[in-house]
Design goal:
The longest helix is centred in the middle third of the chain and has 23 residues. By secondary structure, the chain is an alpha+beta fold. The protein is built from eleven helices and eight strands. The protein is globular, with a radius of gyration of 18 Å. The strands form three sheets. A four-stranded mixed beta sheet has the order 4-3-5-6. A two-stranded antiparallel sheet has the order 1-2.
Amino acid sequence: MALDYAALLHDLRQESDSLLDCLRSSTAQVWETATPAAGWAVRDQVSHLAFFDDVALLAMTDADRFRSEAESLTARGTDFPDRVAEDYRRMAPVDLLEWFIDSRTRLLAAFTEADPRQRMPWFGPDMSVASSATARLMETWAHGQDVYDTVGVEHPVSPGLRSIAHLGVSTFAFAYRLNDREVPEDSVRVELSAPDGGEVWTWGPDDAVNRIAGPAEDFVLVVTQRRHAEDTELSIHGDVASSWMDIAQAFAGAPGSKRPHLAVTPDKKTPI
C-alpha cells in the first residue's frame, strides 16, 4: 500500500473532528460513564488520547527527553496506561476536552511540517513520522469506538479504515511475538470490503490457504481489540488465520485484555 501522507493526515483530522463533535455534545454525566474498556470511563479515553498526543509530539521534537520520560512511564509497570488514566481522573470534563483539542491541534501541526520519513523513538522500536500518524489515527478510532459504544451512537464512517487495516496486517508477526508464540510461516490472504462497497482492499498472496474476508470495519474492530472476531461478519478460514484473529493487536504495549465473545439478543449484547 503506497503512502499518501497528505491523505493520511486528512483522515486523522476527520476522525479527530468526529470524536470531538461527539464529546462536545456529551453531558458531564456521560464523561463519567463506564466504557467497554474495563475500568475506564469516557474521561479516561480522552485523557489517554491527549496524554499520548503530547508524548508523540515530544518524541518528534526531543528524542532524548522522550526516552527519559518513557523510561519513567514504563517503570510503573506494563499497565502504565491505567496509571496515566488514574493521574487525570480529577480533571473536569471541560478541561479534559480543552486539553485534547490543544494536544491534537499541536500534533497535527507538527505532523504537517515534518518529513514523513523522519525517524522518531517510541515504546519499542523507532518508527517513522508517517507510522506515528497512522498509530494516532488507529488510537483515535479505537478509543473513539469505546466512546461511541458508550453513548449509543454509530461510529461515523472513517476514510482512515484502510490505513488502520493496513496497520493491523503489518502487525501480524508482532502479535505473535508479543504473546510469546512462534510466528507462522504460512501467509494469510486478507480481503476487506470498503465501507461504500465500491472497493475490495487486499493483502497477502491470492492463493493462500489461510484467508480472512469481510467488512473492513469488522477487521479493524478485531485488530484494535474492540470486538471478538466471532461477533463480526468476518469469514476466517485456516488455523493460522484463526489463531491470528485470536491475538491480533495493532497497538504497542503489553498484550491487550481483548473483548469477550458476546451472545446477541434482540435488544442487547450480553457477555458469555
